[in-house]
Structure to design on (282 residues):
């Protein structure tokens, strides 16, 4: 069976996905052929792909709360509100990602980013040579991080604008089964938010196509959710998503809430184990 797993981001809501992936790793009957991830889902997917998902859980539990990752004091000054560079240094050195596994693993990791010149989504396969730059780019949120990241020969930021969930890219590889890991409950839809869009667009005044992608993000997200509902209704995919709104928001800093979201991810997969087995034909 050729299995693909698609992981949504959502800032600190990614704590739900890391818990869900940790539980999923214990019950999957086969290693996935492909894992796709966007935004904060990217490090979750990376640690899952290398067989280190419990290390991924440790990072969320120990290194993302308080001002470790989100520091509002940096609203004034040149530093970024989201300390993405410091977080990636954790991936490199403190709780190191086994990058050699990315070359030897049966599972291919694909990370979605936005190309700043065109404003289009790009899906790049992670390798031991590009993975840390790619993870930085995947989490390069406008305003909160605001930098453009070079990966290989391109310049990128967070991929959640054109491909908030990389379902179309996963389908293109024609897997037999697809499990989609979401961080918002069923029925969630977005609305245009003029102030938020204006703040994000300010990060990239020289990239009009990226600004257009930022302004259209809510429409792209809603269209993707409609597609997921259609695919799920036809039995083509299975989704794992929180039963209601998570304790964490995109920029949450509460250790208690982050830990609660991790445990909710675990509990959600445990509750769906029978459904997962039926979907996978186990």
């Amino acid at each position: 069976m050729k299995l693909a797993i698609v992981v949504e981001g959502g800032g600190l809501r990614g704590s739900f996905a890391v818990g869900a992936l940790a539980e999923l790793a214990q019950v999957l009957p086969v290693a996935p052929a492909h894992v796709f991830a966007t935004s904060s889902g990217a490090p979750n997917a990376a640690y899952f792909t290398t067989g280190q998902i419990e290390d991924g859980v440790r990072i969320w539990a120990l290194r993302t709360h308080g001002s470790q990752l989100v520091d509002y004091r940096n609203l004034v000054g040149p530093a970024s509100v989201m300390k993405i560079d410091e977080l990636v240094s954790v991936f490199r050195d403190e709780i190191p990602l086994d990058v050699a596994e990315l070359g030897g693993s049966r599972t291919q990791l694909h990370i979605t980013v936005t190309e700043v010149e065109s404003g289009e989504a790009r899906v790049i396969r992670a390798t031991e040579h590009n993975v840390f730059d790619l993870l930085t780019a995947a989490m390069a949120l406008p305003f909160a991080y605001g930098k453009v990241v070079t990966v290989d020969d391109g310049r990128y930021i967070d991929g959640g604008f054109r491909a908030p969930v990389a379902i179309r890219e996963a389908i293109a590889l024609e897997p037999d089964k697809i499990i989609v890991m979401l961080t918002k409950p069923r029925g969630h839809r977005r609305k245009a938010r003029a102030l938020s869009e204006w703040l994000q667009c300010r990060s990239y005044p020289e990239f009009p196509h990226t600004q257009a992608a930022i302004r259209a993000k809510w429409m792209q997200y809603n269209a993707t959710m409609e597609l997921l509902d259609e695919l799920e209704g036809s039995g083509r995919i299975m989704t794992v998503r929180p039963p209601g709104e998570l304790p964490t928001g995109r920029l949450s800093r509460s250790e208690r809430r982050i830990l609660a979201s991790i445990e909710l991810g675990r509990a959600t997969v445990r509750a769906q184990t029978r459904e997962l087995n039926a979907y996978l034909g186990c």
Observations:
- The mean pLDDT is 96.
- Residues 3-280 form a domain with the Cytosolic phospholipase A2 catalytic domain fold (CATH 3.40.1090.10).
